[in-house]
Specification:
ATP hydrolysis activity, binds adenosine-5'-diphosphate, disordered C terminus, 452 residues, alpha+beta, globular, binds magnesium ion, Bact_Antivir_Def_Nuclease, eight-stranded mixed β-sheet, AAA family ATPase, ATPase_AAA_core, ATP binding, 31% helix, Rossmann fold
């Protein structure tokens, strides 16, 4: 489990300090402010591997390069077995292009899973990827981690020296389904929990073929319209969900088998890093995904503590965390561009924000999480700004106000709450009169839309 991260002169922030909570950690922030980068660093801190270094097909997860090799540092605190905390500080060696620190066997943070935004996935399993003793020395000569490109998730992961590391979703799902044992039951259960609605659960259908030239038995999903759809033809949203379901089941199954082989207990900690958790998902799904993932991961690793670190751009994801959020267990962090002194360019800052229940998605859009001035279209926002300015202008005329009203009618819906403010402000300025109570609303709000 990851407890702290402290970065100096590495990534978009000059200084970044993150104190993670034990269960759900939400990270928001504009594009390019370093959410994915932070997850890459978190993955590295726990596994000491950079995803891209282990799989050249990835388009992210490169070794972090500090702003200056002399000043850059990454420091972190990991909690491992028996709640023991270990602090580690690493600096960058420009010559070796690598991060170095105290030598030797790193601390065991538990099972670490990382779902990347583009569908790549990485697994570090303490039973399969940890160091071993050879001739009394700690050495890392196991598979360093399982890093899947989006394609590897479906077709399998090979290692040039070690051979087949994972069969991939298509082959494993078909194999598990034919066997009809525990892995298939688990997969069905995980798919059902991740389904966005109970009335239409994701349910495997019969295996099928999709071409004369393709000898693979392809898994299918039942659909509400009665036809089973091959998973290769499923929508991107469904494919993202089934890939997550498969990788969770695969990672846990393999961990359990490996623990049996080495005669050790299964891990007490699972850390799940998820970038752009909403990627490809319909709003209905975005509303359910955080809670569902927390539930399935906890259900698989029943005796372990599960920590989630989630980056998101979705107000629905934030709103959906409201019923579950507990300040003793969870936290929300926000990356922002903060203007400094006039002489300095703006700086990227990470702040932990108090999580308030805002109740609806529009409020999340205009909150510090997403910093929008209003949840409307950009055009409406500009006109509303003009309207607010006009109200404050001493010599604004009724005609100007009427012209602006016409423009507003072209972009604002009839029930937009701004109309009542505009009506009232205009009446106070004497631009028009408000109707008597009980009378039909007349100009300007209810005027017929005029087309030009
Ligand atoms: N390997 C790297 N080394 C150093 N900085 C990096 C690296 N990868 C990403 N970054 C930093 O992160 C920024 C991109 O942020 P990113 O995490 O993709 O943003 P977000 O996910 O919030 O949209 C880049 O502008 C750069 O400053
Ligand atoms: Mg990103």
């Amino acid at each position: 489990m990851l407890k702290e991260l402290h970065l100096r002169k590495v990534g978009p922030c000059d200084e970044l300090d993150l104190q993670l909570m034990p269960r759900l950690n939400l990270i928001t922030g504009d594009n390019g402010l370093g959410k994915s980068f932070l997850l890459d660093i978190a993955w590295w801190a726990m596994t000491r591997q950079w995803p891209r270094a282990l799989n050249k097909e990835l388009v992210s997860g490169y070794v972090a390069r500090p702003q200056s090799a002399k000043e850059g540092s990454i420091e972190f605190v990991v909690e491992g077995k028996a709640n023991k905390e270990v602090r580690y500080k690493s600096t960058f060696s420009a010559r070796d292009e690598s991060w170095t620190g105290k030598a030797g066997r790193p601390h065991n943070p538990g099972l670490v899973l990382y779902a990347m935004a583009d569908g790549g996935f990485a697994v570090w399993d303490p039973a399969r990827n940890y160091w071993k003793k050879v001739g009394g020395q700690d050495v890392q000569d196991r598979v360093p981690a399982y890093v899947f490109s989006p394609r590897d998730v479906w077709d399998g992961l090979q290692d040039p020296e070690r051979g087949q590391l994972c069969n991939g979703l298509l082959s494993d799902w078909a194999g598990w389904q034919k066997e009809g044992g525990a892995p298939f039951e688990q997969l069905c259960a995980v798919l059902a929990t991740l389904s966005e609605s109970n009335s239409e659960p994701l349910k495997p259908g019969p295996l099928t073929r999709i071409s004369l030239d393709d000898a693979r038995d392809i898994p299918t999903l039942e659909t509400p319209y009665g036809k089973a759809v091959p998973v290769l033809h499923a929508s991107s949203g469904v494919r993202r969900i089934i890939a997550l379901a498969y990788l969770l089941v695969w990672s846990w199954q393999e961990h359990v088998k490996a623990c049996a082989l080495i005669e050790e207990q299964t891990t007490q900690q699972v850390v799940f890093l998820i970038d752009e958790i909403e990627a490809h998902l319909h709003p209905r799904w975005q509303r359910a995904i955080v809670s569902a993932l927390l539930n399935v991961t906890q259900a698989l690793a029943r005796d372990a503590r599960v920590q989630l670190v989630v980056a998101t751009h979705s107000p629905l994801v934030m709103a959906s965390a409201e019923p579950r959020f507990d300040a003793q267990l969870d936290a929300w962090f926000d990356l922002d561009l903060v203007s400094g002194s006039p002489a300095r360019e703006p700086q990227v800052r990470l702040a932990q924000r108090p999580f308030e229940r805002l109740g609806d998605v529009s409020r999340w859009l205009v909150s510090e999480a997403f910093d929008l001035p209003s949840p409307r279209s950009r055009e409406a926002e500009v006109l509303i700004e003009q309207a607010e300015t006009l109200v404050d202008e001493e010599d604004a005329s009724a005609q100007e106000a009427q012209e602006l009203t016409q423009k507003l009618e072209g972009v604002l819906g009839g029930i937009d709450p701004f109309w009542s403010r505009w009506r009232f402000a205009g009446a106070q300025r004497g631009w028009w009169t408000l109707p008597e109570p009980g009378q039909p609303v007349s100009k300007p709000a209810a005027r017929k839309r005029t087309r030009t």
